[in-house]
Recover the amino acids of this structure.
């Protein structure tokens, strides 16, 4: 999936949740904060920003749970399979950050930005 398409599509691992988001999409980034590491079970959470107004849950809205990881952030995931779906800031409700790993087909664009790189684990790939 590249930014040239009109919408991004995604789903969780079990297929219970499906969504789409209107473009434009911007700021694809790897976030190495410890909350993203825990939420994704990986070195980083990888996200892309889209407008909240263009985010539509096509199937499984009742399967989405949100975890308040701080006073300022909510993380969305599937209650059945645990797939990470998105992150959103309570300070910027007009934007939702989709987990790139949840996109179908897979994102083929580049990710140039790293956030909280000082927390990047020594075992993570380095450029």
């Amino acid at each position: 999936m590249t930014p040239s398409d009109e919408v991004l599509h995604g789903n969780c691992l079990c297929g219970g949740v499906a969504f789409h988001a209107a473009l434009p999409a911007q700021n694809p980034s790897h976030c190495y904060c410890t909350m993203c590491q825990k939420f994704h079970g990986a070195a980083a959470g990888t996200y892309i920003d889209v407008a909240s107004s263009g985010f539509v849950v096509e199937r499984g809205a009742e399967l989405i749970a949100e975890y308040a990881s701080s006073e300022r952030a909510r993380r969305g995931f599937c209650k059945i399979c645990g797939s990470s779906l998105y992150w959103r800031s309570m300070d910027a409700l007009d934007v939702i950050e989709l987990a790139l790993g949840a996109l179908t087909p897979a994102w083929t664009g580049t990710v140039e930005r790293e956030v909280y790189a000082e927390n990047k684990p020594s075992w993570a790939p380095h450029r």
In short: The longest strand covers residues 45-51. The radius of gyration is 14 Å. The chain has a mean pLDDT of 93. Residues 46 and 56 are 20 Å apart (CA to CA).
